[in-house]
Design a protein that fits this description.
Elements lengths: L16 E7 L7 E8 L19 E10 L2 E9 L8 E8 L11 E2 L3 E3 L4 E6 H6 L7 E9 L6 E3 L4 E3 L11 E4 L2
Antiparallel strand pairs: 1-2, 3-4, 4-8, 5-6, 5-7, 5-9, 9-12, 10-11
């Protein structure tokens, strides 16, 4: 179904059952709602997402340093973030060199970058709580994110999906868990 100018839509003559509903628009991320139950009687989709545009923030550099037993990520964006032009970033960790937004063991929250490079810190305890072990090699990859990330749990994959990421990024970088 297509929405009207107010974003409202009607799905007509839908048989009763359980569905996956997908919201999408060109230049915006996709959002999926799993296991929507359409049963006999009045039913309505009451919580619709606010779709955000796909991020225009590119990651141009990613450095990782160990400082006092903490892992410090330095993420450089283009354009650079500042007080009037915030940029959003997110990173993913894995024990695989092919770490990505779809191949990860840990994902960060979205961070607001107002300085270049943006720095984020993970402690040894946070890494161990995320399933990594001391002495283990971990790979990281960072992406530009949108203010409205449209992230959702894909129940088929049992994994969070991040459809608004800008896939223009650097190669993964590795570090050893302190």
């Amino acid at each position: 179904a297509l929405t009207n100018s107010n974003g409202q839509f009607v799905l007509e003559d839908v048989p009763f059952g359980t569905y996956t509903i997908e919201y999408e628009k060109a230049q915006y991320g996709v959002f999926k709602k799993f296991n929507f139950s359409h049963q006999e009687g009045p039913s309505a989709i009451t919580d619709t997402p606010s779709l955000g545009k796909t991020s225009s923030t590119e990651i141009t550099d990613l450095l990782v340093n160990i400082v006092n037993g903490q892992v410090v990520f330095s993420i450089t964006t283009s354009p650079a973030g500042n007080n009037s032009n915030r940029r959003y970033v997110r990173y993913f960790l894995s024990t695989s060199a092919t770490v990505s937004n779809s191949n990860y063991m840990y994902h960060s929250p979205t961070f607001t970058s107002q300085i270049n490079p943006y720095q984020s810190i993970l402690t040894q305890t946070e890494l161990i709580n995320a399933g990594f072990t001391s002495g283990q090699t971990v790979y990281v990859k960072a992406y530009g994110e949108s203010y409205w990330s449209n992230e959702y749990l894909d129940s088929d994959l049992n994994k969070m999906i991040f459809p608004n990421l800008n896939l223009s990024t650097t190669n993964s970088v590795s570090f050893i868990v302190p």
